[in-house]
Amino acid sequence: MNRRFPFALKLGLSFVIVILVSVALVYFLTARAITSQFAEFRDQNKQQVAKQICGLLCEYRHRTGTWLGIEQLLSTRYTAWINGQLIVRRTSLIGPFSLADVDGKVVVSTEEDKVGLFLSPQEIASGIPLSDEGERMGVLLLSEQGSVLDPAEEEFLASAKHSALLGGGIASGIALLLSAFLISQVLSPLRLLSRATERIAHGDLTQRVALKARDEFGQLGTSFNRMIDNLRRSETIRQTMTADIAHELRTPVTIIQGNLEAILDGVYQPTAETIAPIYEETLHLGRLIDDLRDLALAEAGELRLNKEPTDLVTLVNQVTEMVSSSLERGPQLHVRVDHSLPKVSLDPKRIRQVMANILSNALRHTPATGEIWVEVSRKGEELELRVTDSGSGIPPEDLPHLFERFYRGDQARSRSGGGSGLGLAIAKQWVEAHGGRIWAENSEQTGARFVVRLPLT
User: Fold this and answer.
1) For residue 445, which of 3, 49, 248, 416 sits 20 to 30 Å off, Cα-Cα?
2) pTM for the whole thing?
């Protein structure tokens, strides 16, 4: 079984590791820099002190005529309390050194084994020459091995390193406190989102997250709330659609079932007159099933178009003539088209279905004494098809919802005449599949206007 490690623990451990590694690296580099700079300072100081002492050495040699006793001039006496003991020592002012006479023979040295030996030409060249008024008296050679620190110097370096370590510890504590604060700030919105997501997973779509931050978390909270709104809307649409589909199916099924039961019970005779209504209802069921299938394909992104170069004017004339011939009595149908329009690539079957659905809607909501105008024109790089009726118009509150499936708006424009309630929703899907747009509006005089725009290319 895999153990679960909270994100807060992972984030906290990451901060701790980064802080400790950073502080350790800074301490190491600081201690190394202090040691290096202090050693360089000691060397430079020794060189300066040595150059200052050179004058005293030359004066001593000129005055005494010998180098004997010169070691007293180059050393100092100090007293130190170390490990509970009082220690008195002498130490060289310039560290380990060797003093050679004019012939290069070492006469005084902090290293006893060098006394009496001669310096090599290289050592003489690297030393500090001693001369007085142009007279060469010898050479002072500082040892490169003067790394032994006196207690005061050791105490200074230890204090500096301790201060660096203490500063690193304080910085680590502050960094850990800030990390804890930052982690709480980061995890707080995540916890809110996690709890809200858990409740939504159990079906509670009333959840909201209130993230006031003006950063990515605030944007995430806004997107999350918008997602919940869309989920609620989708759920409402799903429930409404399910109820509407059940209602649409129930009516023809009830009619079919009632007629068939009447025929089986001998109430009706199985004649053409009694079977015809049953047949009409089966056709209605077939149309409803086809419409639902088209909508399902549209939602799945699987609407397939068989495009070909089509004269939209000819297509409009064919549809309007077919509609006019089927009208026994009803509103007058007028067509105004621009015959100079070019052919466009589209699926004539689907666009014919779009026109038929729009005209069918206009016919249902236009009185018999009214009029319907069908117009085709060019608008920039698009072709525009407009269907305007002289009906009662569309209430403004219904306009945004006309293309929703099974939408029931104002009773003046509610479904009647056997429509499935899916015609406009299907028309919208087919138009958008062609890369076009469709919308509804109220005309300037009276009635409604449906506008379809299709790209020329």
Assistant:
1) 416
2) 0.49
